[in-house]
């Protein structure tokens, strides 16, 4: 049975200081340019105290309230992914010295992050990315080094926005693994649960007292309340997987293609998408060539370019590829689903395409077809 501890709001600075003395660069949500984003912090006053976010299809807005809470908001604009899998980075350089000899220099990771306030959906997204970059036949040494150096403090959900649908995926607003600490914010502080030896050591270092029964009960009820808040849902994943493959020529693919801009905003905001491209970038003098890796999107035309041919030239084929991979073939490839129900793809789609609507329409058509066949029988 887990032991719960209590951290008062006024001791958050002690937590941040303890992490920094261990050599961590502390990342946490802040309010910047009317958005809640991850950034470096030095003190607890920089957290988004009293701020809440409103998210709907193609709509995002934050506002200040009088509530004295650091984590009253539901979800940051971006996930933890850029800290582990960078949008753009140099993998190596080839240099020519004065004698004309070429030398090879590999770029190494030296950053060590402690991330405060990771929501459960983003925690599960890290687990999915681990499957892609570490637990696969191919191991990405840079991702692995960053992942092993990361100290994660999860923040259980006590609210959600209108685009969230994690519960219908079989997930929960409660962090159950993959963290050093998991915190639930209540009126005067946080109920804390440790999830690793490093987490337990930090509790001892800060000399936290056990949480009272009233505090743990309040924390539990705040998380449970989120189950009634989520409005969006999709059918069970086994149903979705079968329906998508059985309806590759469904008219809904044409319908969504008329609306989709192929801008890739959904893939850029997604915490699990991992498509990338690599290229050489030589300097003008021909002395240095840098090998770069940067994010790519399956909505881009070049992504399917192979041997002089585009295999997904039509927008409907690109959207179908993204949706069927995320909710169907991902499981076969990585033994897990590819979506965590964070709803970012809905929030940041400029034309309000809602992935839950698209899935429900396709699944409903298949269900109606099955019903007709059963009636005939």
Automatic annotation (TrEMBL):
Alphabetized InterPro entries for the sequence: 4Fe4S_Fe-S-bd (IPR017896), 4Fe4S_Fe_S_CS (IPR017900), Helical_ferredxn (IPR009051)
Residues in 4Fe-4S ferredoxin-type domain copies: 249-281, 330-358
Coiled-coil features, chain-numbered ranges: none
Superkingdom per UniProt: Bacteria
Keyword Plastid among record annotations: no
Pfam families: Fer4_22 (PF17179)
An annotated Gene Ontology molecular function: iron-sulfur cluster binding
Keywords: Iron, Iron-sulfur, Metal-binding
Protein name: Cytochrome c
